[in-house]
């Protein structure tokens, strides 16, 4: 059976200041019941990767 996927497109509303919220979520979700995918703007992708660290949160890119 496939695992469910919860994906969120951060669009242009996310800022670097929001990364602390993502870090807190990453720490809280040690074993989520579904796969988690967040797609931040390309300008924040590297910082987002640092924020989630080794958490089970996948990252994707956007073209906007």
In words, what does this structure look like?
There is one protein chain. The chain is α/β, with parallel strands linked by helices and 64 residues long. The protein has one domain. It has helices at residues 19-28, 45-52, and strands spanning 5-9, 35-39, 57-59. The protein has a 3-stranded parallel β-sheet, covered by helices on one side. Helix 1 (19-28) packs parallel to helix 2 (45-52). The protein is globular. It starts with a strand and ends in a 5-residue tail after the last strand. The mean pLDDT is 86.
Q: What characteristics describe this protein?
A:
3 strands; alpha/beta; 2 helices; globular
Summarize the structure.
This protein is of the alpha/beta class. Helices cover 28% and strands 20% of the residues. The chain has one domain (5-11, 18-59).
How does the SSE layout of this entry go?
Elements: E1 5-9, H1 19-28, E2 35-39, H2 45-52, E3 57-59
Parallel strand pairs: 1-2, 2-3
**Helix and strand composition category:** alpha/beta
Q: Per DSSP, what share of the residues sits in E-state strands of 2 or more residues? A: 15-25%
Radius of gyration: 12 Å
Overall strand count: 3
Largest sheet strand order: 1-2-3
Shape: globular
- Largest sheet composition: 3 strands, parallel
How much helix is in the residues?
25-40%
Helix and strand element order: EHEHE
**First CA to last CA: what distance?**
34 Å
> What's the number of domains?
1
Q: Counting H and I runs of at least 4 residues, what is the number of helices?
A: 2
Q: Average pLDDT value?
A: 86
Low-confidence segments, ≥5 residues, pLDDT <50?
A: none
């Amino acid at each position: 059976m496939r695992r469910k996927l919860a994906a969120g497109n951060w669009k242009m509303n996310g800022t670097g200041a929001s990364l602390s919220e993502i870090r807190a979520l990453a720490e809280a979700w040690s074993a989520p019941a579904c796969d988690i995918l967040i797609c931040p703007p390309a300008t924040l992708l590297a910082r987002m990767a640092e924020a989630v660290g080794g958490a089970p949160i996948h990252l994707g890119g956007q073209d906007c």
